[in-house]
């Protein structure tokens, strides 16, 4: 193994070389294209001693490293993805050299071509939804006994559970509308308040692959459904379709 490894950001087709001419990625290393059979990999160099399997596993516990690396990774993918159809690779995907990257392009040419064809003319959009803030409830003054206090608490908890169920039912309907107008849909893990920065519980974190010619109609339907839902809804995008790249093609 040499002093550097080849870090792959994405694969794509018809990527203009000028897009990567002045583009720099992780560690401020320049980005280049490695091509084989009409498919190109967007590649940069990284220090071999910092991207061993052991080092990567350890650094994935380091939030500062993940944040810095992810920003550089996504910036490269976003710049190239704005000019060509690309399928992003997972963070910290490395190979021993460019020759190995070319070999991967040959071996997986069919899978890469299928994914890129599915993504052509489409972008990823996100829909997040949170339950409305629960109203403040008065427990009617001081409880007359321990049993009365427990009865009131159980009533409050039952009402809270009912409202949560109603919010999740509304989220299912919202997801159905968003997925119905998309070519593909994914449900992501719901964020805890500490991660979302909101006190209300998140009830939907969806990603949707939408044809660029259908975006206006799709957004209008989602926004109308969001208004009817009683939820706090946020629509984001367009993004490079990270959520719709099959793991087996990487």
TrEMBL record:
UniProt keyword list: Gas vesicle
Pfam family, one: GvpL_GvpF
Family matches, as InterPro entries: GvpL/GvpF
Main localization category: other
Highest taxon in the source lineage: Bacteria
Gene Ontology BP, a term: gas vesicle organization
Compartment annotation: Gas vesicle
A GO cellular component annotation in the UniProt record: gas vesicle
Family per similarity comment: Belongs to the gas vesicle GvpF/GvpL family.
Name of protein: Gas vesicle protein GvpL/GvpF
Organism whose genome encodes this protein: Pseudonocardia endophytica
Lineage: Bacteria, Bacillati, Actinomycetota, Actinomycetes, Pseudonocardiales
